[in-house]
């Protein structure tokens, strides 16, 4: 993999790809001498390289493995990680890249100290890194910059430092969509079971919820908002708190499909049915949201597409083509299933 330097040194690989009428990964394959390119495509790219004066020079001072990228996730035993891996693997295959997957969560190693993911990435000489982690420390960012390894964040929980490239979802719009769906059914007493406070996604979803209420002229009731962690049992407790209010909500917007399991359990414990007694809307559209009963109406977060987009951005960065914007957001949409209905009058 190669790159150009400044604009004065010549065009970026993206310009060459556009001139040849191919994708950036395809142009990258030609530049790096890969064999899996059709002869006619290779000819067009080669002519565009020569015509535009593309400057070929090594991307890094250190020796790198040009066809290898790392995907680092917090853990491998979650639906989120599996969906991210699927998106990255599919995009990497199309780009002719190999992917090494690492779990950043420490695991017991029989008394031996396991090397951290950063040590492994630098030892392998990976050409780039995709990071699907809750948060990175300042030291971790500094180490990546020190080794001049291009990296892209997938759905970061906290605001990245200036200049760091990330891909996420339109969480504010998703919060609006979920709340508007319940309002359209006639619900006005809409509770929220949210995740942790002060996260990018959580804050945006809550802001969307409040915005939709305001647009509909419905008063925001702070007592209807309950923050929790990432576990079902915590969502279960918070839902019971909502049901104990003098005027309990007739609908609940759950800011994560995983938390919806705890909400369902709390409602069943109180003898309430979904959606006859309480409607529920989730967020994520994880595979299990179709399997619970009733199937969960939820806002689809395009996690697989986000991962593929992050890989495409990483390929551009590996070739020296810096994205125009450091933040890319993919749209969300409501997936209607069986967990929402019009409210019914209750004593």
Helix content: 25-40%
Strand content: 15-25%
The count of helical stretches stands at 11
- Rg over CA atoms, rounded to whole Å, is 24 Å
Structural class: alpha/beta
Q: Kindly state the mean pLDDT as a whole number?
A: 87
Helix/strand layout:
Layout: E1 2-3, H1 13-20, H2 24-31, H3 39-52, E2 57-58, E3 65-73, H4 79-95, E4 98-103, H5 117-124, E5 126-132, H6 138-146, E6 151-154, E7 165-169, H7 171-184, E8 190-194, H8 200-215, E9 225-227, H9 232-243, E10 251-254, H10 257-269, E11 279-284, E12 297-300, H11 303-318, E13 327-330, E14 333-335
Parallel strand pairs: 3-4, 3-5, 5-6, 6-7, 7-13, 8-9, 8-10, 10-11, 11-12
Antiparallel strand pairs: 1-2, 12-14
Helix pairs in contact: 1-2, 1-3, 4-11, 7-8, 9-10
Short description:
The protein has 347 residues and is an alpha/beta fold. It has helices at residues 13-20, 24-31, 39-52, 79-95, 117-124, 138-146, 171-184, 200-215, 232-243, 257-269, 303-318, and strands spanning 2-3, 57-58, 65-73, 98-103, 126-132, 151-154, 165-169, 190-194, 225-227, 251-254, 279-284, 297-300, 327-330, 333-335.
